Amino acid sequence: QVHLVESGGGLVRPGGSLRLSCAASVFTFGAYAMSWYRQAPGKERELVATISNTGGSTLYADSVKGRFAISRDNAKNTVFLQMNSLKPEDTAVFYCNAADYWSGSPQFGSWGQGTQVTVSS
């Protein structure tokens, strides 16, 4: 069974930064692209960023391009999301999952508990 554990969320003021982490286990981490997703209250889960299995390529949603950066450490089975210039509309629960690189479709049906990001003054 896939096990995903997200961490690093919190309360931050507009313009601030956070770095999220996702530790993955029980699958061949380095064989999969990985994505971050987020779900705001009352909204559907949306794709935020994707990184290829080697870390050499990345894709971003237009809403976060230039502000967020996805990276990974395959030796530690961990994917990161550096979030800068945060806005109130970034408030959401953030999740990670293995993904199809081009579509961002999640590959596993089980999700972690997510990590809450709240951007507010």
Strand content: over 45%
Number of strands: 10
Number of continuous helical runs? 0
> Uncertain runs with pLDDT below 50, 5 residues or more?
none
Strand order in the sheet with the most strands: 2-10-9-4-5-6
Average pLDDT, rounded to a whole number, is: 96
Instruction: Report the sheet with the most strands, covering strand number, pairing sense and barrel closure.
Output: 6 strands, mixed
User: What is the element string, with H for helices and E for strands?
Assistant: EEEEEEEEEE
Q: What would the principal axes of the Cα set say about the shape?
A: globular
Helix content: under 10%
- End-to-end CA span: 40 Å
Radius of gyration using CA atoms only: 13 Å
The structure class reads mainly beta
- In quaternary terms, these chains amount to single chain
Task: Describe this structure in a few short sentences.
By secondary structure, this protein is mainly beta. The chain is 0% helix and 47% strand.
Annotation keywords:
single chain, 121 residues, mainly beta, six-stranded mixed β-sheet, four-stranded antiparallel β-sheet, globular
Structural overview:
With 121 residues, the chain is an all-beta fold. The chain contains no helices and ten strands. The chain has strands at residues 3-7, 10-12, 18-25, 33-39, 46-51, 58-60, 68-73, 78-83, 92-99, 115-119. The model has no long low-confidence stretch (mean pLDDT 96).
What is the strand and helix layout of this fold?
Layout: E1 3-7, E2 10-12, E3 18-25, E4 33-39, E5 46-51, E6 58-60, E7 68-73, E8 78-83, E9 92-99, E10 115-119
Parallel strand pairs: 2-10
Antiparallel strand pairs: 1-3, 3-8, 4-5, 4-9, 5-6, 7-8, 9-10
